[in-house]
Design brief:
heterodimer, A: alpha+beta, five-stranded mixed β-barrel, 3 helices, elongated, B: alpha+beta, six-stranded antiparallel beta sheet, 48% helix, globular
Chain lengths: 136, 816
C-alpha cells in the first residue's frame, strides 16, 4: 500500500471522527417540556422573558444570581436561574436563548444569549418611537 | 396624489441610482468582453480587450462614486435617505462616519467591491497572458456584488438592496401617516445612529482590512480559474503565489484586528470566543495557508497540482460561504454579531452556487491534466511533511466548519441541533491537539531538504532548539500550573517551533532576511499559539467572590464581585477601590483604583487606576466597555458587569428609613448591615424601670447590641421589648451616625432566639458596581506573534515576486 493511501485513510478517519463528535456533542433546541422530561441534560431553549413578572436580582445580596421567568415557544413559563450578573439591556432582548438544564423545578442556565435586533436593524418599536415623537 | 415634499435633496439619490446601474451594467459588459477577448485560441483580441478595460474603468468609477456619495450623504446628515437615517445621527463624531458606511450590508458589499477594483488596477497595470482570464473571473465576482445593490423587485423576488432608497419609500416607513405630510422631513429630528459597539477605532480599521483580505483571496482563485479556462494548468501557480501570501497577510491581520477589537472593547473577556462570525473568516485563512504550502510544493517538484487547485479555489468559496453565513440571517440564534436578513438569502445562495458549479465543471473538464506524476514522496523530504501539515490544517478547517454550520445543517435536514453547551471547550478539545501537530511540523519542517534529506543531519540540527525548548517549557511549568497535559504539549511544541525557526534563520540561512519569510512567519505563528495558550489557558479571574455558594459543580465560579463606593476589597495580588462615577460625553466612567501592599512597610500603595465605562445609547441600548492596564508581562482587564443606571445620586439626602428587615438572632450571633457589624451580646433583664417609664406589672427586657462600623468604632444600644397586659410593645433605638434603627420585636422561646428589626436610612444606600477583573499573563507574546506573522508573509511576497521576475528575465519556465 502506498503512503498516500495510508494518509488518505487516516484523514478520512479523522474526518469521520470530527463529524461524529460534532453531532454527538451537540446540544438540542427544545422547549421546557422536553428539558423537564430529561432532567439534568443540557438543552438550548428559545423564548422570551416575561417582563410582567419581577426579575430576581439583588446584587447587594448576591451579585452572581439572576433569575427571571421565561416563556418558551410553546408558551410554557418557567423560572430560569443564572449564575452571573443581570445582562446589560436584558429587558430589550426580543428573543433569548438559555443554555442549561432542569434541576427540579428550576432551569439552571449556564449561558443567556440575547437577540437584540434593534442593534442591527430597526425594530418595529424603534420606528414607532421615532414616528411618534415626531408626529406628536 | 403627488405630494410636494419639502427639504429633500433628491438629486444625490438620482445620481446614486444611476451609478448603481452603471456599476452593474458595465461590470457585466466588462465580464463578457474579457471572456470574448479570450476566445481566439490564445491570441487575445484587442478590440474586445479594449472594450473590457474601458467598461472596467467605468465600473470602477461608479463604485468609487457610490462610496463617496454615501459618505457625503452621511456627512451632510441627509436623513431623507434611509441608509443615512438608519446608520448615523447628528451627534456622531466625524471619525466614526466611515464606520456608518460599513455598518449596513450594502456598504460592506461596497467596501468589498472597492478592494476588488483596487486590486484589479494592479492586475491591469502590466498586461500579460494572465490579465484577461484573471480579470474575467474578478469581474464575474464584481458583477454579482454589484447586483447586491440593485434593489429591484420582480414578482416578489428581490434583487439587491439599494443604499439610495428614500426613507419615505422604504417599506418600514411608507405607510406611516406622518410620511404623507409634505414637511415630514422636518419632523425627523435625528437618525437612528451608529451601533455603539462600532463606535470604536478598531471598527474603523478592522472591517476594511478584513474585506481587503476577502478581495485578495479572489485573486489566487481567479488565477486558478484562469488556468483551468486557458488550460495553462501549471503556469498559474507562480504568478499567484505572491497574491496568496498577500491574502494570508491581510486576511490574517483583519482577523486579528477583530480579536483585538473584541479584547479591547467587547465585554466577553478575551480575544477569541469561537463565535460563528469569527470562525467564518478563520476557516478560509486556514485553507489559504494550506493552499500556499501545496502551491510551493508544486513549484518545487511538480506534484500536488490537484490539491493546489482545490485549496486555492475552496478558500474563495469559503469566503462566499462565510458571506452567506453572516448575511443571510441563518446564524440568528447562534451568533451575536451577524447581520439580519435583508431578504437576499436566495441571491446569496445563487452567488455561492454559481462559483461552486463553475469550479467543479472546470475541474472536471481538466481532470486528466490535474493528475500528478505517479511517484512516492520520501519520508525524509520537506514536501512530505508540508503535505501532512496542509492535511492537518484542512482537518482543522473542516472541524470548525461543521460545528459552525449546525444552523445550516438544521435548515437542510430539518434537525434541531444546537452547538455543544460549552462551545469554547469543544473547539479547544479538537483544535489544541491539531495545533500541537502543526507546531511540531513547523519546528521540524524546514530542516528537511526538498526531495530527500539525511535524517541524521536533520536530527543533529534540531538538537539545540530542542534543548532550549525543553528548558523554557520547564520554566513555564514552574511559573504556571498547566492543568491539562495537552496544554503542556502545546507549550513545548510551540516553544520548539519558535526556537527551531529562529535557529534555522540564524544558522542555516545565516540571517539573510530576504529568504527568511517562512522562518519569521512560523516564529510568529508559534508565538500566537504560545501567547493564546498562556494568556487564555492561564488567565485568572481575580474578582472571585468566595463568600457565595455555587449553584452546582457544572456552573462557572462566581466571577463577579460587588464593590461599594469607597470600599476596598482584595483581588488577587491587588486591593481594589471603587472611587465613584462621572459622566464624560456619552460615557459613564467608573473609577477603579488598584493598590498593592508594600512589602516593607505594609502600607497600601496605588498601582494604577482604570476607567471601565458604560456607553449610553437610548436608541440601541447601553454598552459597557472594559478598561485594561497593560504591563509588559500581563494585562489587568476590568469590566463593569452591572451598575445601577438610574437614580445614582437622588437618594443621597433622604433622611427617612427604609423598611425594617427582620433578623432572628441567638445570643452571640452576628449580622451585617451596609455599613456595620451587629452582635447580639446578651439580654438585659435588669432594666432601669423609672427611666424607661415602665409600669410595675410590665415585663421588660432589652437586647444588648454591639455595633461596629467600618472604622472599627463601637456603639452599644439596647432596644427594649415590653409585655404590658398581654400586648407586646417595643422601644426602638437609633444610631444617628450610622443611620440605623433597631427594634426588639419578639422573643422566640422555642428556638431560643430573638427577633430584631433593623432599618437603614435611605441615605445609607451607597453607589456600587459589580465588576469582573481578569489577569491575562503574557498576552503581549500573542501580539508580537501577530506582527512577526505579518512581517514573515511580507518577506514571502517579496521573495516570490523577485523569483518570478528572475524567471521571466531568464525566460526559463519555472522548474517543473
Amino acid at each position: 500500500m502506498k503512503k498516500s493511501h495510508i494518509l488518505a485513510i487516516i484523514v478520512i478517519a479523522i474526518g469521520l471522527a470530527v463529524v461524529v463528535s460534532s453531532i454527538s456533542n451537540s446540544s438540542t433546541y427544545a422547549p421546557f417540556r422536553t428539558a423537564m422530561e430529561s432532567q439534568g441534560k443540557s438543552f438550548h431553549v428559545v423564548g422570551k422573558a416575561n417582563l410582567q413578572k419581577d426579575f430576581i436580582y439583588n446584587p447587594e445580596v448576591n451579585a452572581n444570581l439572576f433569575g427571571f421567568y421565561m416563556t418558551d415557544n410553546e408558551g410554557q413559563e418557567q423560572l430560569v436561574l443564572y449564575n452571573g450578573t443581570k445582562p446589560q439591556d436584558f429587558e430589550r432582548a426580543e428573543q433569548i436563548v438559555v443554555v442549561g438544564k432542569m434541576e427540579g423545578d428550576q432551569f439552571l442556565a449556564s449561558q443567556i444569549l440575547m437577540k437584540c435586533p434593534s442593534k442591527y436593524n430597526g425594530s418595529e418599536q424603534d420606528r414607532l418611537k421615532v414616528a411618534g415623537e415626531q408626529a406628536g | 396624489m403627488d405630494i410636494q415634499y419639502t427639504g429633500e435633496h433628491l438629486a444625490y439619490g438620482q445620481i446614486g441610482n444611476l451609478l448603481v446601474i452603471f456599476s452593474f451594467t458595465f461590470g457585466l459588459l466588462s465580464t463578457l468582453s474579457f471572456l470574448l477577448s479570450l476566445r481566439k485560441e490564445g491570441v487575445e483580441s484587442d478590440s474586445w480587450y479594449k472594450l473590457a478595460r474601458t467598461s472596467f474603468f467605468i465600473h470602477a468609477s461608479a463604485v468609487i462614486g457610490i462610496i463617496f456619495l454615501i459618505y457625503y450623504l452621511i456627512h451632510g446628515r441627509f436623513f431623507e435617505y434611509y441608509y443615512v437615517w438608519q446608520h448615523s445621527n447628528s451627534i456622531l463624531p466625524t471619525r466614526y462616519m466611515w464606520a456608518c458606511l460599513w455598518e449596513g450590508q450594502e456598504g460592506s458589499f461596497l467596501v468589498w467591491t472597492f478592494w476588488h477594483v483596487v486590486l484589479a488596477f494592479f492586475i491591469l497595470g502590466r498586461r500579460n497572458t494572465w490579465t484577461a482570464p484573471v480579470m474575467f473571473t474578478v469581474m464575474i465576482i464584481q458583477t454579482f456584488l454589484a447586483s447586491m445593490l440593485l434593489g429591484l423587485e420582480f414578482g416578489g423576488i428581490k434583487i439587491g438592496s439599494n443604499p439610495f432608497i428614500l426613507l419615505r419609500n422604504h417599506p418600514d416607513f411608507a405607510n406611516l401617516p406622518f410620511i404623507q405630510m409634505p414637511d415630514y422631513l422636518s419632523r425627523i429630528s435625528d437618525g437612528r445612529g451608529l451601533n455603539p459597539l462600532l463606535q470604536n477605532y478598531w471598527m474603523v480599521i478592522h472591517p476594511p482590512t478584513l474585506f481587503l483580505g476577502f478581495a485578495a483571496t479572489a485573486i489566487p482563485f481567479a488565477y486558478a480559474i484562469g488556468g483551468l479556462i486557458t488550460r495553462k494548468n501549471r503556469e498559474w501557480i507562480a504568478p499567484s503565489l505572491p497574491w496568496i501570501y498577500f491574502a494570508i497577510m491581510v486576511l490574517g491581520t483583519g482577523i486579528l484586528m477583530g480579536g483585538a477589537w473584541a479584547y479591547e472593547s467587547l465585554s466577553f473577556g478575551g480575544f477569541w470566543a469561537w463565535d460563528p462570525v469569527e470562525n467564518a473568516s478563520l476557516v478560509p485563512w486556514l485553507t489559504l495557508v494550506a493552499a500556499a504550502h501545496v502551491m510551493l510544493i508544486h513549484r518545487k517538484n511538480g506534484t500536488a497540482l490537484g490539491s493546489s487547485y482545490i485549496l486555492a479555489i475552496i478558500s474563495f468559496l469559503l469566503i462566499l460561504y462565510s458571506t452567506f453565513l453572516t448575511r443571510s440571517g441563518i446564524l440568528g440564534d447562534t451568533s451575536v454579531h451577524a447581520f439580519t436578513d435583508l431578504g437576499m438569502r436566495g441571491q446569496l445562495i445563487l452567488y455561492m452556487l454559481f462559483f461552486v458549479i463553475m469550479s467543479a465543471v472546470l475541474m472536471w473538464i481538466n481532470r486528466n491534466a490535474l493528475k500528478g506524476p505517479d511517484e512516492e514522496e520520501s519520508l525524509s523530504s520537506r514536501e512530505f511533511w508540508m503535505f501532512i501539515g496542509t492535511l492537518i490544517l484542512t482537518v482543522s478547517a473542516i472541524q470548525i466548519t461543521i460545528t459552525t454550520s449546525l444552523p445550516v445543517i438544521n435548515k437542510v435536514f430539518g434537525t434541531n441541533m444546537a452547538p455543544p453547551e460549552d462551545v469554547i471547550n469543544f473547539y479547544n478539545s479538537w483544535q489544541v491537539p491539531l495545533a500541537v501537530v502543526i507546531a511540531l511540523l513547523m519546528a521540524i519542517g524546514q530542516f528537511f531538504r526538498w526531495r530527500q534529506s539525511d535524517t541524521r543531519t536533520v536530527v543533529r540540527k534540531l538538537g539545540v532548539s530542542f534543548v532550549i525548548a525543553i528548558i523554557c517549557t520547564l520554566l513555564y511549568e514552574l511559573a504556571f500550573e498547566f492543568t491539562r497535559f495537552q496544554y503542556s504539549l502545546l507549550l513545548f511544541t510551540s516553544l520548539w517551533a519558535f526556537f527551531a525557526n529562529l535557529d534555522y534563520m540564524l544558522r542555516t540561512l545565516k540571517g539573510k532576511i530576504s529568504f527568511s519569510g517562512a522562518s519569521v512567519a512560523h516564529m510568529g505563528m508559534a508565538l500566537i499559539l504560545l501567547g493564546s495558550l498562556v494568556a487564555n489557558g492561564e488567565k485568572q479571574v481575580i474578582s472571585q467572590n468566595k463568600l457565595r455558594v455555587d449553584l452546582g459543580k457544572d456552573f462557572p465560579n462566581n466571577e463577579n464581585i460587588l464593590l461599594y463606593e469607597r470600599d476596598t476589597l482584595p483581588m488577587g495580588d491587588y486591593y481594589v477601590t471603587y472611587k465613584g462615577r462621572q459622566k464624560e460625553g456619552i460615557h459613564i466612567q467608573f473609577e477603579v483604583e488598584y493598590f498593592k501592599r508594600d512589602l516593607d512597610n505594609g502600607q497600601l500603595e496605588k498601582s494604577f487606576s482604570l476607567f471601565p465605562s458604560v456607553q449610553l445609547n437610548k436608541q440601541m441600548g447601553n454598552v459597557s466597555e472594559p478598561s485594561t492596564k497593560h504591563y509588559w508581562n500581563k494585562d489587568v482587564y476590568t469590566h463593569v458587569t452591572y451598575a445601577e443606571m438610574e437614580g445614582g445620586e437622588k437618594e443621597q439626602q433622604d433622611d427617612t428609613y427604609k423598611e425594617n428587615k427582620p433578623i432572628e438572632l441567638a445570643i452571640g450571633d452576628t449580622v451585617t448591615t451596609s455599613n456595620s457589624l451587629v452582635v447580639l451580646e446578651g439580654i438585659n433583664k435588669e432594666l432601669d424601670r423609672s427611666k424607661l417609664m415602665l409600669n410595675d406589672n410590665d415585663l421588660a427586657v432589652s437586647a444588648r447590641l454591639l455595633v461596629m462600623d467600618v472604622n472599627k468604632d463601637l456603639y452599644r444600644v439596647e432596644p427594649v421589648f415590653i409585655i404590658r397586659e398581654n400586648t407586646m410593645m417595643n422601644r426602638p433605638v437609633e444610631i444617628d451616625e450610622l443611620g440605623l434603627r433597631f427594634t426588639f420585636e419578639k422573643i422566640l422561646p422555642d428556638e431560643n432566639k430573638f427577633r430584631i428589626l433593623i432599618a437603614e436610612k435611605k441615605s445609607n444606600s451607597r453607589d456600587f458596581i459589580i465588576m469582573k477583573a481578569i489577569v491575562f499573563p503574557q498576552i503581549n507574546i500573542l501580539w508580537i506573534g501577530c506582527i512577526l506573522l505579518m512581517a514573515g508573509s511580507w518577506l514571502a511576497i517579496r521573495q516570490r515576486l523577485s523569483e518570478n521576475k528572475r524567471d521571466s528575465h531568464s525566460n526559463i519556465t519555472p522548474e517543473v
